[in-house]
Amino acid sequence: NTATINEYSQTLTITSAADSKTTEVTVKMNVVEKPAPTGTFTLHTGDLIEGDYVIYYSGKAMKAVVSSNRLGYEEVTPSGNEIVDPLAETIWHIAPSGDNWTIYNDNKGYAAGNGTANKAVLVADLTGDNAKKAAWTVTGTSTYDFVNVWNDEKNVNKTLRNNGTYGFACYA
């Protein structure tokens, strides 16, 4: 996999408050888009560690797409405890963040609660309230329960689930 580099430029007009003179400055930036991991994801057991995972339950992998105010799922069929070349939208980087964890998709953002029952969002960054909205506790060693810190405080549906079912396998 190779990264894609996109160049963006923006012209800014700066006006001096003292003498009202204006200057135009063009700023150029290179943005590197990291490709999603590909290959074989194998069923993970034991303590969760930082890494790229497919979060899976009963034929469906959690997808970084919000539909009807919920995270979507993609039909997936593991073969011999492996998922081969999953869609980029189903690959999540799970990482510790203080006492909690974040669930991040490179192309779409962080999986997050929004304090409303049966709703989910993707947030682009961890600034302000987003840090708590995108914070999860994780328990388990063969299936994993993800509990959203923000929704837990708001006393609404707090557990990541697939149509009422809790506990996900993680393929790394």
Mean of all residue-level pLDDT scores = 81
How far is the first residue's CA from the last residue's CA?
A: 17 Å
Number of helices: 2
Give the total of beta strands. Answer: 16
Shape: elongated
Strand content: over 45%
Task: Explain the overall architecture.
This protein is mainly beta and 172 residues long. Helix content is 6%, strand content 51%. It has two helices and 16 strands. The strands form four sheets. Strands 3, 4, 5, 6, 7, 8, 9, 10, 11 and 16 form a ten-stranded antiparallel sheet that branches. Strand 1 and strand 2 form a beta hairpin. The longest helix has 6 residues, at 149-154. The protein starts with a strand and ends with a strand. Residues 1-5 have low confidence and may be disordered.
